[in-house]
Amino acid sequence: EWWSRKLKKRINCVDDSEVQILNGGHNDKTYKIGKSPRNLMVSTVGDELRLATGFGSKVFGVSYKDRAAMLPAGKLANAAYWFDTKTGGFISSTYYMKKLPEWVEKFNQQKFPDRYFGKKWEKLLPDSAYKLSRKDNFPYEMNFKGIGITFPHIITGNSRHPDEEFYKAFTHVPFADKHLLEFAKSLIKNENLGTDSFTDILTISFSATDRIGHLFGPYSVEMQDQIARLDRILAGFFKFLDKTIGTNQYLIILTADHGDAPIPEYMRTLNFTAGRIDVEAVPRGEDSRIIHTTVEAYLDSTIAVGDWVEAFVKPNLYLNYYTIKNHNIKRQKVEQLAKKALLKIPGISSVFTRTELLNGQFSPNSIGKRILNQFYPERSGDLVVHYKPYFITAGYKHSASKGADHETGYDYDTHIPLIFWGPGVKVGNYHQSVILNDLAPTLSSILKIAFPSGNQGHVLYEALLN
Q1: If pLDDT is split at 50, 70 and 90, which confidence band does 24 have?
Q2: Is 413 domain-assigned?
Q3: CATH code, domain with 379
């Protein structure tokens, strides 16, 4: 998300007022805005493949999250589908089609999530297998929609029957990944992927790991159980591909978009300095109260009373240019004063101003480089905030002190797997540092197509046979 100075509101990366949600004939007035990949500013591997094959190749994206379904697939995808907590089924957008395909509606009619209403999420493995995890009863884990913080977790959403609250709870348990995979298998069959001379792409983003990480943290029994279950889900998927597409006829790439910070209160029990920037619950629609009010108060006292901050959309703080102009003060001076105020907040390690980032006036260490990489002048704020190790902004889902997050450039937030498996890939393990951006040019090289327009990565030649 980012803040729109023109519209004076937060912008979700896939919001699009020019399209509508397709949910199979249910009441679409409950959706505030349509969704599409229109805001994406560069092409994807899928886009380049479609262009290179005269649109003979098919590209689809699926996920429990809208952005995770649409953005990896690109602007030219045949379709993207994501889970809808209002209906308990998969939905899409008029960006791709006029109505949902018949096979999608039939799949949704099975009401897969409803089978788990009132069921228990229990440990998959014997208790002795979870010795790598911390004790299964940590008070700073989050009890989301009645799921609880210890096994077994009962899935009702605090409702008497399957409804939106139940579906929201369902997105935070491992069975959501199983549902997603069944949908992906149905898509492969009904859209005839892998059945002609053109290479097709299907992007699948399993979202349960992220949400379980938010609730219970990376060292929890729940996270270990989730990974064990996901491993088995993937094994079943590969067997399905062997049977449906054919052994050695498909390429798998497995990766992630981020890691996960430990729950701060857990790190405190291990004698680490850790915490949350906001120690009280943050109102909905805001990411922090402390960051916003600290800057406002400091600028009020050093310049004059005024509305100095438009918004904080983590990690970006947006200054009010109208107020700055009215007080006839240089923006760079206000940036520095705001930076000084922010650095006094316990838990904040560094602050980067817009002027510093645009002019290269910052320490070129790994954190500084990562901040620069995510800075885009047209959408980013005037100050970018980075925290000390094991600090996060606030509690998950606007709670006061529950759950974990992923907000920094430290290894626990950025260390992810990158696995290539299939035709054209050399067997081996590689331990040197690479970046997620290397995926796109490496896959493009395998497919013998142009790199995406925004490519910043390198081909991992050492992992390729030819």
Answers
A1: confident
A2: no
A3: 3.30.1360.150
| pLDDT at res. 208 | 97
Dist. CA 309–CA 321, nearest whole Å? 9
Tell me: do 190 and 287 sit in the same domain.
no
Give the integer Cα–Cα distance in Å for 331 and 196. 58
Own/partner pairs, 285-294, CB within 8 angstroms, 24+ separation: 285/10, 286/312, 287/312, 287/313, 287/314, 287/393, 287/394, 288/312, 288/314, 288/393, 288/394, 290/345, 291/317, 291/342, 291/345, 291/385, 291/393, 292/317, 294/341, 294/342, 294/344, 294/345
Q: Which amino acid is at 211?
A: R
Residue 285 — very low, low, confident or very high, per pLDDT cuts 50/70/90? Answer: confident
Given a contact cutoff of 8 angstroms between Cβ atoms, the answer to whether 303 and 329 are in contact is: yes
pTM: 0.96
CB 337 within 8 A of CB 302: yes
Residue 26 pLDDT greater than 80, yes or no = no
405: in domain: no
Q: DSSP secondary-structure letter at 84?
A: E
- Residue 260 forms part of a structural domain: no
53 with 153, same domain? yes
Locus of tokens 């430290």:
410
Given a cut of 70, whether residue 29 has pLDDT beyond it is no
Task: Find out whether 346 and 313 touch, Cβ atoms under 8 Å.
Answer: no
| Enclosing domain of residue 366 | 275-398
In tens, the pLDDT along 90-149 reads 999 999 999 999 999 999 999 999 999 999 999 999 999 999 999 999 999 999 999 999
Give phi and psi for 415, each to the nearest 5. Answer: -80, 115
Ramachandran sector of residue 62 (left: φ over 0; alpha: ψ -120 to 50; beta: rest): beta
The answer to whether position 436 is within a domain reads no
Report the alpha-carbon distance of residue 374 to residue 385 in Å, rounded.
Answer: 12
Q: 59, 194 in Cβ contact below 8 A?
A: no
Number of domains in the chain: 2
